[in-house]
Amino acid sequence: MYHSKELHHAYYFVEHKAGELVSKLKHFLENVVGIKTVGNPDFYHGKFETLTIDDARTITELSGRKSFNYLEARLPSRRIYIIEADFVTEEAQNSLLKVFEEPTSGTHFFIISPQEILLPTLRSRMMVIEGESQKSVKEENILRLPLNERLAKVKEITEGISNEEKTKQDAIILLNQVEVELYEKGVEKSSGALKVCESARASLYDRGAPIKMILENLMLSI
């Protein structure tokens, strides 16, 4: 992407170093694509700890408007949306789904999160790019830990969320790691546990989800 003016309608970056990525992305847009990222009403950059359905509706409404360049008859025109989000609610993702199913010509989205947080239905409509810092993350093997140590991890995360030192994203990171390890063991062999993970993921995306109960059930079931 960084060597071409041709843009896909939607990109999903899984990257811990969001600030560095945004700087590189803006440089690319300015110097390769020729899009101003300052003082341009057709450029949007939003940062969210949790992107809610109200945020998604606002973004959808903005993306449905005619670009300022189009209105001034200076074609071709492009609208760029960079969205940084630690978490996106399920309702918000469903709200954004139509935007990506029926992309508007000249409109391009760049969604950035530190871990994979998008539902498969939304993710499948985007070009996914995994950052180098994400590839280098190594976690200990959860499945090899005794139950008491698994539950200790759950306690660490949930207490951290209560103290505002951690977020729901940390719970999703743990779930992602468990899923990766189960897939490495084999889908057929791990089918039951993978169904538990699927259920846990759906529950975690609910607003006000009982995170401790969900994670404890996960650790007891794998």
What this model shows, in words?
With 222 residues, the protein is an alpha/beta fold. It has two domains: 10-135, Rossmann fold (3-Layer(aba) Sandwich), CATH 3.40.50; 142-221, no CATH class. The protein is built from ten helices and five strands. The chain has a five-stranded parallel beta sheet with strand order 2-3-4-1-5. Strand 3 (79-88), helix 4 (90-101) and strand 4 form a beta-alpha-beta unit. The longest helix is centred in the C-terminal third of the chain and has 18 residues, at 168-185. It starts with 9 loop residues before the first strand and ends with a helix. The mean pLDDT is 85.
How would you summarize the topology of this molecule?
Blueprint: E1 10-14, H1 18-33, E2 43-51, H2 53-63, H3 68-71, E3 79-88, H4 90-101, E4 107-113, H5 120-123, E5 127-130, H6 132-135, H7 147-162, H8 168-185, H9 191-204, H10 211-221
Parallel strand pairs: 1-4, 1-5, 2-3, 3-4
Features:
222 residues, alpha/beta, Rossmann fold, 2 domains, five-stranded parallel β-sheet, 10 helices
Shape: elongated
Strand order of the largest sheet: 2-3-4-1-5
The fourth-level CATH homologous superfamily of the largest domain is P-loop containing nucleotide triphosphate hydrolases
What low-confidence regions span 5 or more consecutive residues with pLDDT below 50?
none
Return the CATH topology of the largest domain. Rossmann fold
